[in-house]
Amino acid sequence: MKLTILSGAGISAESGIKTFRDGDGLWENHSITDVASPEGWRKNRALVLDFYNQRRRQLHEVEPNEAHKLLAELEKYFELQIITQNIDDLHERSGSTNITHLHGELFKSCSCNNKNLIYEQKKDINIGDKAEDGAQLRPFIVWFGEEVPMMEKANKLAREADIFLVIGTSLQVYPAAGLVHEIKDDCLLIVVNPNETNFGYGQRAVMMKETATQGMKLLFDKLVDLA
């Protein structure tokens, strides 16, 4: 049976990673345009690099939480795929093996002239750090206004799912939020999020107003029973 997960910032928040939609979120002291857009990059590369360098340093200090670990455990029972809006590697560190990152990865960098030139990046990116084509390295992040290259794969995974589990996202960021509209008519849709989640599916979804960790503790055995 195919279980596909769409994870968002809420699951990472429980490991201590701030979410930009919270009151104390990442973007509080910067407009999104300044630090997460091609325009911001052209305007002030140093600011953008510093912003993501701080996020990268923080990622070294946090660990996967119980929700990440329980999702990884489900690979024993399902043909499991994780589609994540998160740019951290907490799913990987918890043991999950089939992960599609929609918005890029913080521990990678790429040429600002060629996104196919991708490098592992565990340390800071500095002005003057170059890709092999001679261009400045930039964070391997999909910024607002940029194409989401993994979206086609994500749509396919959603369409193939027998169970589609949404966890830690309020489904407000597109195109990722549109994935719930790709699932089959007979696909079981489960949404775990402590905040209001509005996506036009009415009574179809099994709604759980829980944190990611608590939701997974409640769901795990029930999902295994369905496998």
From TrEMBL:
Q: Does the keyword Disulfide bond apply?
A: no
Give all residue intervals belonging to the Deacetylase sirtuin-type domain: 1-227
What InterPro entries has UniProt attached to this entry? DHS-like_NAD/FAD-binding_dom, NAD-dep_sirtuin_deacylases, Sirtuin, Sirtuin_cat_small_dom_sf, Sirtuin_class_III, Ssirtuin_cat_dom
- Keywords recorded for this protein, A-Z: Cytoplasm, NAD, Transferase
Q: Which residues are catalytic?
A: 103
Residues annotated as binding substrate are: 52, 55
- The main enzyme category here is transferase
State the superkingdom: Bacteria
| Entry's localization field | Cytoplasm
Q: What is its EC number?
A: 2.3.1.286
Is the keyword Cell membrane in the record?
no
Q: Which residues bind NAD(+)?
A: 8-27, 85-88, 168-170, 193-195, 212
Provide the reaction this enzyme catalyses: N(6)-succinyl-L-lysyl-[protein] + NAD(+) + H2O = 2''-O-succinyl-ADP-D-ribose + nicotinamide + L-lysyl-[protein]; N(6)-acetyl-L-lysyl-[protein] + NAD(+) + H2O = 2''-O-acetyl-ADP-D-ribose + nicotinamide + L-lysyl-[protein]
Pfam families xref list: SIR2
The task this protein performs is described as: NAD-dependent lysine deacetylase and desuccinylase that specifically removes acetyl and succinyl groups on target proteins. Modulates the activities of several proteins which are inactive in their acylated form.
PANTHER family from the entry?
A: NAD-DEPENDENT PROTEIN DEACYLASE, NAD-DEPENDENT PROTEIN DEACYLASE SIRTUIN-5, MITOCHONDRIAL-RELATED
Q: Which family does the similarity line name? A: Belongs to the sirtuin family. Class III subfamily.
**Domain commentary:** 2 residues (Tyr-52 and Arg-55) present in a large hydrophobic pocket are probably involved in substrate specificity. They are important for desuccinylation activity, but dispensable for deacetylation activity.
Q: What is this protein called?
A: NAD-dependent protein deacylase
Q: Report the source organism.
A: Chryseobacterium caseinilyticum
